[in-house]
Specification:
Shape: globular
Strand content: 15-25%
Strand order of the largest sheet: 2-1-3-6-7
Largest sheet: 5 strands, parallel
Low-confidence stretches: none
Distance between the termini: 33 Å
Order of helices and strands: EHEHEEEHEHEH
Helix content: 25-40%
Structural class: alpha/beta
Oligomer: single chain
Length: 132
Amino acid sequence: MKRNVRKKVFIVDDSPVVRERLATLLSDLPSVEIVGQAEIAFEAISATRRLKPDVMLLDISMPGGSGIHVLEMVKKERPAPLVIMLTNFAHEQYRQKCLQLGADYFFDKSTEFEKVLSVLNPAPEATERPPA
């Protein structure tokens, strides 16, 4: 019997409301374990090195730096987490920059919030990942 392994997820967003919404949304997924949260860039980088999450949900705008800088730093870690950018700054130039720096997904927080679920809990028959 194959043992189900839970994905360790780390949430980075400067808004406590968004972090709470994400934590609530993900808490019902049996395949997910939320291992931590951060609201500033330094905390995010430090915690990622310490906790080694499988997945990071990352906003672009935050105090003490940017999510783009955090993305650059965490993608240098080994193993690097899968990074889902979830932002209100969903302009094409940010999308291209983040994908170029290694983001695995880039979603608009205002219109694609729920897509995080399809990435973290894909249908059993799904074999392709949704488009970034």
